[in-house]
User: What shape does this take?
Amino acid sequence: MKVVVAGTFGPLHDGHRALIERALAEGDEGVVVGVTIDEFANATRDRSVPSHSERVQAVQEAIETLDEWDREVEIRPVEDDYGFADDDPALDALVVSPETDEEVAEINRRREERGMEPLETLVVPYEYAEDGERISSTRIVNGEIDEHGNLME
Assistant: This one.
């Protein structure tokens, strides 16, 4: 199965690593990682986001650490809400976090309009910080936690 996972990944944290690891585990026919371009990432956030090149580098490093299957991995830019997931017929599945149900439904609607099969949805549970709250890039940027969910003193 060819699997896609996409996001801003900035800053990268253990929740992102869980998504990437699931894509690698399932992607026996390849993995495509979409990383939002700077303009899109900054337009959808109220906080600073590392540059696209920095985020791609962090994703590449995570892949090197997590890829025990030696998968073929391609990193692509994402320019809008649908990226390439709605128009690439080679993709079979999409790895997502629990909050993305509506987006997946719209991607699959758009795929079906184009005569393509819908993507299988692979939902990865949230990773939680030591305070029991969800790990997020916003919490990291705000200085609440580190990338592994440890509380900052």
Q: What stands out?
A: The mean pLDDT is 96. The CA atoms of residues 50 and 140 lie 12 Å apart.
